[in-house]
C-alpha cells in the first residue's frame, strides 16, 4: 500500500496547471510527446482536456484521472478544474486525494481561487507541496512570494529550491538537496538535462540564496503531513524546470493512502474488506458508446476484478466485471487495485456521487456535500418534441454534478441550479454535442435554494402555505426555492422548527 501516491493539482486559472500535469506525465513516462496547451490561436491541447468545450476555451472543466508508474511508485494524478465556476467538482475530487500540489504564478502570487482551494485542503488536513511556476519570466521577488504564502495561508514555508534570477536574468534553478543548478539551454532557454553541480553563483544572488536556506524552517516531514508546513519548489512547467524534483518530492514525502471518515470512525487502508466511495460520475467520455463511468476512490482492501460490492444507494450487490484504470481518455481493464487507486466502474445509472461501495454494506463514507446553487435558470427546448432526450440529459448531467435539477411542485418547467456561470455554458454545449438537444436558458423567478428538514407536522404545515415555492431535487428531497436571501432569513425566523440548509451531505 505504501507505493501509492494519490494527489491533485490545485491552482487559479492560467497558473499553468494543465501544462504541469502534462509534464509530470511526460517525466513519469506516461506520454512520449508533449502536445502543448492551446496558445496564440493554435488548437494544440494537453491530453487531459478532452471535452469539446475544454478544447475550444483552453481550460479544464472536468476532473481527469491519470495513473502512471515511476521507479516502483504508482501515481494517481487527479487533474481538477481551476475555474471557480467548477468548485463543486474540485471539492469532491479533493475528498479523494491524500496530498496536493499548489501551483502559483511567480508574477501573481496567491490568487483568490488558489486560496479557496487551499481552504478546502485545510478542512481535510491535506498536505500541500507548493510549486512556484513561470520563474523564467519576470516575477515578484522570491522572499515576497514566500512571505505571502506564509502570511496568507498561515503555513510554515520551507524552500527546497531557488531561482537564479528571473525573466531576462534567469540562469537556472538551484536545488538545495543536491547543490546543482538546472541550466537553460538553446534559443528557447529550456531545461534539457544539463545540471551544473559546481555552480558559480553570481554574487547578487548568492546572498539571497544563503538567506533563503537559513531564514526559513527546515523541511519537517511530520509538519508537512499534518498540513502545517509546505515545501516550496521553483520552476517552469513549460520549460521543464523543477518537474523532476517535484515528482521525486511526491514519491519521497507525500503520504501513502490515508484513513477516510465514515461517520464517527476512520476506515484505514488495512481494514479487512474492500471499501471505496464514488466521488465523480462522467457520462460520454467515449461518445461512440454513450458510456457512464463512476470514479471510485478505493479506501481499503485488495480489489479483484469480478468482485461483488454493494453500493449504499442500491442496497444489493453488483459484480464489477470491467474495472478501469485511466490515462485521461485512454483506459485499460484492471485485474486488481489497492487502497489509494482510482478505478472507473462502467454502469447505467446505478452508481451516483457519494455512494459507498463495500463488501458487507455496513460502512458509509461521509464528507461529499451538495452546495446550494447561486444561479437558477429554466430550460426551454428549441424543439418541444425532444422532452424525453432533455430529461435523460439533465439526469445524466446532474448525476455527474455538473448541474442540479429541481422539479417544481407546481408547474412543469424544470429549474437548473449551478454554482457558476460557466457551468451553464458547459450545459448548453454538452446538450448540443452529446445529446443532440438544442435548448436555451431563461430567467427563473428564484435566486437560491435551501434543503428543508424537520418533523413531519412542521414540514406539512410549511408545504401547505408555500407550495408554489417548493421543488424536489433528483433524490426526491424537498427544496425551498427562495426569491432572495431575505426570503430565506424570513422563513427561517417564521419556522424555527425547520432547518434550511445550504449544503446537503450525500
TrEMBL record:
Q: Which PROSITE patterns does this UniProt record tie to the protein?
A: G_TR_1 (PS00301), G_TR_2 (PS51722)
Q: Which GO terms describe its biological process?
A: regulation of translational termination
The UniProt entry's GO CC annotations, sorted and at most eight, read: cytosol
Could you tell me the keywords of this UniProt record? Answer: Cytoplasm, GTP-binding, Nucleotide-binding, Protein biosynthesis
Please state the protein's primary subcellular location: cytoplasm
Give yes or no: UniProt keyword Transmembrane: no
Annotated compartments: Cytoplasm
> What transmembrane ranges does the database entry give?
none
* A single MF term (Gene Ontology): guanosine tetraphosphate binding
> What InterPro entries is this protein classified in?
EF-G-like_DII, EFG_III/V, G_TR_CS, P-loop_NTPase, PrfC, RF3_C, RF3_dom_3_sf, Small_GTP-bd
In this chain the Tr-type G domain maps to 2-258
Q: Which family does it belong to?
A: Belongs to the TRAFAC class translation factor GTPase superfamily. Classic translation factor GTPase family. PrfC subfamily.
Q: What is this protein called?
A: Peptide chain release factor 3
Which species does this protein come from?
Erythrobacter aureus
Its ancestry begins with: Bacteria, Pseudomonadati, Pseudomonadota, Alphaproteobacteria, Sphingomonadales
Gene behind this protein: prfC
